[in-house]
Specification:
The protein is an alpha+beta fold. The protein is 57% helix and 14% strand. Helix 8 (218-245) packs parallel to helix 21 (537-572), helix 9 (248-257) packs parallel to helix 22 and helix 16 runs parallel beside helix 21 (537-572). Residues 618-752 form the Hemerythrin-like domain.
Length: 761
């Protein structure tokens, strides 16, 4: 309010004095202008005193001297204009910071205040502070999830845009964990609270946002260092102009055009604008210093598990024992494990749901830590976990060897203590990891290091896919700190991690970045930047914004300083009167503030813009990939069984694979060739961008035709022995090409989609 009054009073004094002059009352007009200038001295002097109390000598002292000088040489109009300039400059700066911090403020202003807790079967409204772990809550349609919890029953369709930046609602089934701060975009559902409101995810984000300040950036502190030389230089130039010309008015003109320093206005506005932009992308940056340091980083150190990989095991293959069916193996295992809270059990149940399997209800379930789970499923004694008994068949030995080569975990499934199959799980590389690293390199990162406590062979297999520069495996938390410090001595270093053991390394880096969606509270607390969504590409978005913000801040400050210094030179030479100088300086200040606010505007950066029609097409084909990927394992399974089954059974399995390829997979590939690839060629502006993918399509077609030819040449009883080797090679080749091709498309094309894809069901 005081700044509004300051602006209004200054403008009123300037206008009233001008009106009196037009009416011929020049003395009265001068008196009003002088009063306006004198009134402006008071707040300007207070700003100087406040700066001195804070241990800074700011350039506001120049404003005080300019006002006093204008009054002393009877340049009353110049004094009134300086008063308007000071009031307007402060108002614009205040507006710029409020406008830039609006998105951060919105985070904690929208925090949930109430919740609906079931008591005696009825939902009652309570304060969120009253929520306790284990409470059963009702989340009505359109309301915010008040705390972290687990969906008890039904399906939750949640709008997570405010927390993660995702634009589309995300579906969560019964048993899925959800976070506070997201909005129910579907029907009402029940939630079992797993945290109090103060311990919840959104409360943590609010605490981070409240600590976010623009004034701590090095480029902002540079303004204080700038005053150390600019203030005496200005006074020296003003004094010199007065001394050599004998005209005090020249000194006043120099002081006028030096008021105030554009750097003081531009830097905080740009940094605050950058912080606002990152918050819209689901990134909380704890202060302007972290944002600017992120913008000049050259080395990226990344943890593997949960950062470059998904952080939770995923089913990569289900291998049935000879004579068994893969769907039945997974169905029985997931049916038994759906009552288990083990992380591997969750992965099995998720894989079964992805394959649209109907899970039977288990009975008499017993879970033995370190061994597995056992129980009755459809009247059968089913075991899931370690392989039963000490005996090892050639088939079991082959699966153990394969798991060792793939770096996969094994979950054995048995019925009545006889193995019927094995499920292989692996922590898969994030689909957006490779593209994100390429974007970061484009943005200026010159060295990428993987730092992990995992085994060297597992880490190197991930590194080979992503193309990192160095792999440091089997590291302890202390070893991680030492390596991060060593990298920081060579260049400005960013460390990205998510686990408790990453917290010390995050604190040791120049900028620590925590994967906050599923990461630990310790890593989020130690980090300077928190990615609130489970998307690694948010880091590339944040770095794009940081680099652009720093560039705009420096550009605004340097341009404004250069213009002010040039104007000071003209004023010292007598070419600029105090009134004209005041107006010119006001124009300069407004220009640098408006330029600094460009940091609020969205920018493409290193992200490739995808328009709505192409995005919809990408989502369609990504959903089809999710549907087609599980049956691909049937191809490898049939290839492995050739020579071990009866010829007519082999032929039946081969025909099933061929039917899937011709009826489901090839139509998908042909649709991609006809619709998706031309769109990607236009988007990427490179006719060669899809050439390798089209070549893979041609190879898939060739192998499918070859498989069909084998079926045509087979006798009713099966494939003749002389063709088995070629048939086996054909199937293995199809599996390899399709697996690689799917991975390439998901990395190169589908990762372009910013938001979480819709549920294919």
């Amino acid at each position: 309010m005081r700044r509004y009054l300051f602006v209004a009073g200054s403008l009123a004094a300037l206008a009233a004095g001008g009106l009196l002059h037009l009416l011929g009352a020049g003395n009265g007009g001068d008196a009003v202008w002088a009063a306006g200038a004198a009134a402006a001295v008071v707040p300007a002097a207070w700003w100087v005193v406040s700066a001195l109390r804070a241990g800074r000598l700011g350039v506001d002292l120049i404003a005080v001297l300019a006002l006093v000088g204008a009054l002393a040489v009877r340049e009353f109009l110049a004094g009134a204009v300086i008063g308007v300039m000071l009031a307007g400059g402060r108002f614009l700066e205040d507006y710029a910071l409020r406008r830039a911090r609006r998105d951060l403020t919105a985070l904690y202003e929208r925090a949930p205040r109430t919740a609906r807790r079931y008591e005696d079967g009825t939902a009652h409204v309570i304060d969120v502070e009253a929520i306790r772990r284990g409470d059963r809550l009702l989340v009505p349609a359109g309301e915010m999830v008040p705390t972290d919890g687990v969906v008890e029953r039904g399906t939750a369709l949640l709008d997570e845009s405010a927390l993660t930046g995702e634009s589309l609602p995300v579906r969560h089934e019964a048993g899925d964990g959800v976070r506070s701060g997201v909005v129910n975009a579907g029907h009402a559902f029940d939630l079992i609270a797993t945290a109090t409101a103060g311990e919840s995810t959104y409360a943590g984000v609010v605490r981070l946002a409240e600590r976010t300040e623009a004034g701590t950036a090095p480029v902002v502190r540079l303004a204080d260092r700038y005053a150390a030389w600019f203030l005496p230089a200005t006074l020296g130039l003003a004094g010199g102009a007065w001394l050599f010309s004998g005209e005090a008015v020249r000194a006043v003109a120099v002081l006028v055009v030096a008021t105030p320093c554009p750097l003081l206005l531009a830097a905080p506005a740009a940094i605050a604008a950058g912080l606002s932009r990152t918050s819209r992308h689901g990134v909380v940056v704890k202060g302007g210093g972290a944002l600017e340091t992120l913008g000049k980083a050259r080395t990226l150190v990344m943890d593997k598990t949960g950062t470059l990989t998904a952080g939770r095991p995923q089913v990569v293959d289900v291998v049935a024992a000879p004579g068994e069916d893969t769907k039945q193996v997974l169905r029985l295992a997931a049916g038994l494990d759906q009552v288990s809270s083990h992380v591997l059990a969750t992965a099995l149940v998720r894989a079964a749901h992805e394959r649209d399997l109907v899970l039977p209800r288990p009975e008499d379930v017993r879970e033995e830590p370190g061994t597995g789970t056992a129980g009755l499923v459809e009247g059968k004694r089913v075991g899931v976990g370690k392989a039963p008994g000490p005996r090892t068949s050639p088939w079991e030995a082959a699966q153990r060897a394969r798991a060792a080569l793939d770096g996969a975990m094994t979950v054995w499934v048995s019925v009545d203590d006889e193995p019927i199959g094995v499920i292989l799980l692996r922590d898969a590389v994030r689909a957006d990891a490779a593209r994100t690293l390429r974007r970061l390199r484009t943005a200026g990162i010159g060295r990428v290091v993987m730092l992990t406590g995992d085994r060297a062979e597992v880490a190197e297999s991930v590194a080979a896919v992503l193309g990192v520069d160095a792999v440091l495996a089997e590291q302890t938390p202390a070893g991680k700190v030492a390596e991060v410090r060593r990298e920081s001595r060579a260049a400005t270093t960013v460390m990205v991690g998510d686990g408790v053991n990453d917290a010390p390394a995050l604190a040791a880096a120049d900028v620590g970045v925590a994967m906050g969606a599923y990461g630990s509270a310790a890593s989020a607390q130690a980090a300077d930047v928190v990615l609130t969504g489970d998307r690694l590409d948010r880091l590339a978005d944040a770095m794009d914004i940081a680099r652009r913000t720093r560039r705009i801040a420096v550009q605004s400050a340097v341009t404004g300083m250069a213009l002010s210094i040039a104007a000071m030179g003209v004023a010292a030479a007598g070419g600029l009167a105090p009134v004209a100088g005041a107006v010119l300086q006001e124009v300069i200040d407004v220009a640098v503030i408006l330029n600094a606010l460009r940091a609020l505007r969205p920018t493409r950066g290193t992200r490739l813009h995808v328009d709505a029609p192409v995005e919809a097409m990408l989502r369609r084909f990504e959903a089809e990939h999710a549907r087609l990927r599980p049956p691909l394992e049937k191809i490898r399974e049939v290839a492995g069984q050739i020579g071990y089954e009866a010829p007519y059974e082999e032929l039946r399995s081969i025909r099933q694979v061929h039917d899937f390829l011709t009826e489901d997979l090839l139509p998908h590939e042909h649709a991609e060739e006809a619709r998706l690839y031309p769109a990607m060629t236009r988007l990427l502006r490179d006719p060669e961008a899809t050439a390798t993918m089209s070549r893979a399509h041609a190879e898939i077609d060739r192998l499918v035709r070859r498989l069909g030819r084998h079926i045509e040449l087979a006798s009713p009883s099966g494939v003749t022995p002389d063709r088995l080797d070629d048939l086996r090679a054909c199937l293995y080749g199809l599996h390899a090409v399709l697996t690689l091709h799917f991975a390439q498309e998901e990395e190169a094309y589908f990762s372009l989609v910013r938001s979480t894809p819709p549920d294919p069901g």
